[in-house]
Design goal:
Layout (H helix, E strand, L loop, with lengths): L5 H4 L18 H16 L3 H15 L19 H13 L3 H8 L1 H10 L6 H9 L5 H5 L7 H8 L1 H5 L2 E2 H18 L4 E4 L1 H4 L4 E2 L2 E6 L9 H9 L3 E7 L21 E10 L22 E10 L5 H9 L2 H13 L2 E3 L4 E3 L4 E2 L5 H7 L13
Parallel strand pairs: 4-7
Antiparallel strand pairs: 1-3, 2-4, 5-6, 6-7, 8-9, 9-10
Helix pairs in contact: 2-3, 2-4, 6-7, 11-13
The structure holds adenosine-5'-triphosphate and manganese (II) ion (2 copies).
The site of one manganese (II) ion has 4 residues, from loops.
């Protein structure tokens, strides 16, 4: 007899942190469509709808094979009526009319271009859109005021659109290591974010910095930043503002953490190495290809006692993080990138590894490469 997929699908947890989501999966056509609708919902400031589409896409990423018939979706979590309608149309006709209409809509395209500028969120993009701005180039000649981050975002727009490769991330890692070593002996840096999940490209490079002696890491970033000065096209450094409360504060922990941090844009020299031919003069693009590339880099400093939480919180994916916090809440705990608090026992649960945090939460350990929810 033909075996149905129900044995697999019935056991899938509704939280992304309950399942393994590899980087490569079998349903990219469907997930690309659902994620475009999620993105568009974000552009319309409809977060609930956006999360619903992201959850549905994430469930499909975790399936062991490609979906061919609607019956195979039976028993799967997070697939609402709207998602099913989109999936059905794609399975039957190869494309979804709603997705294609959205993709080509003027609002979607303008919002995609404008929110693609570093320092620009949906609110600002929407204001500009209403004022007739459609593209970063429109801002150069307009009277709209840009803050420092946005000015850098517009200036390096074409650079920052190009994905960062793993090789570039590693080269930046070496530079950051050199800077950190120069200002604080024994400090350690860890590559986090998408690259730690095994991605080969990313929109930025994320690093965690710590020191084995608690307290030594305080005030590290301004020194690192001044060491790096000539290599930074932009930087904004914030001090650590985290204070452990006697009791967990009434407001829920936000997904913005309070570590000492630096959001920056690096000027990375291109190595015209054996792999990469130098541009020949006269060839297309040679004139405008500069010998460097602007790359977004996030540096975050954590006290070593919070390192495991920071690592878990900065490895992502964003949906995985969101569901970890939701899962913790449902278990009477509160999770942030700093700590885990047990609201019933009224105490912090310490951990020195990600494995311990998963254990505290009553979850099977999911390695970084399978957190691509
Ligand atoms: P990409 O390859 O596109 O960079 P990514 O998964 O690395 O993908 P990021 O936006 O760099 O995405 O974020 C990495 C992780 O860091 C995410 O899981 C996110 O939760 C966390 N993070 C990002 N920004 C902040 C912030 N301001 N405060 C706290 N955590 C953040
Ligand atoms: Mn990243
Ligand atoms: Mn980042």
């Amino acid at each position: 007899a033909k075996s149905g997929p129900s044995a697999v699908t019935n056991t899938m947890g509704a939280y992304a942190c309950q399942r393994k989501t590899p980087l490569e999966h079998h349903n990219a056509v469907l997930t690309d469509a659902l994620l475009l609708l999620a993105e568009n919902a974000d552009f319309c400031t409809n977060e609930g709808r956006s999360v619903a589409f992201k959850r549905a896409a994430s469930v499909l990423k975790a399936l062991p094979g490609p979906v061919r018939r609607m019956e195979e979706l039976q028993g799967l979590p997070c697939l609402g009526e709207h998602c099913q309608r989109v999936i059905k149309e794609i399975l039957e006709h190869g494309a979804s009319s709603e997705v294609e209409m959205t993709r080509h809509s003027e609002h979607y395209q303008a919002m995609k271009a404008l929110t693609g500028i570093f320092g620009v969120g949906v609110k600002t993009a929407e204001q500009w859109h209403r004022a007739g701005i459609r593209h970063p180039a429109d801002l150069v000649s307009s009277e709209h005021k840009l803050n420092r981050a946005q000015r850098a975002g517009v200036e390096y727009y074409e650079h920052l659109r190009v994905p960062v490769t793993k090789a570039e991330a590693d080269r930046i890692g070496e530079i950051v290591k050199r800077a950190v070593d120069a200002v604080l002996l024994g400090a350690e840096i860890t590559l986090t974010g998408g690259f730690r999940r095994g991605k080969q490209t990313g929109h930025d490079v994320d690093f965690l910095i710590t020191h084995p002696d608690e307290g030594r890491e305080e005030g590290l970033l301004p020194k690192v930043v001044s060491w790096l000065e000539d290599l930074l096209l932009y930087q904004k450094t914030n001090k650590n503002s985290y204070l452990e409360a006697k009791e967990w504060p009434a407001r829920p922990p936000s997904n913005m953490d309070r570590f000492e941090r630096c959001f920056s844009i690096f000027k990375l020299q291109r190595p015209w190495a054996a792999l990469e031919e130098p541009p020949q003069s006269g060839e297309r693009g040679a004139a405008e290809t500069p010998g460097w590339k602007a790359v977004r880099v996030d540096l975050v400093v954590t006290p070593v006692s919070q390192f495991a939480f920071a690592l878990l919180g900065w490895t992502g994916s964003q949906l995985f993080e969101r569901d970890l916090r939701r899962w913790a809440g449902q278990k009477g705990m509160s999770l942030s990138s700093h700590a885990l608090y047990d609201c019933e026992q009224k105490r912090y649960l310490r951990a020195t590894s990600e494995e311990e945090i998963f254990a505290h939460l009553g979850l099977e350990y999911i390695p970084p490469g399978e957190r691509n929810a």
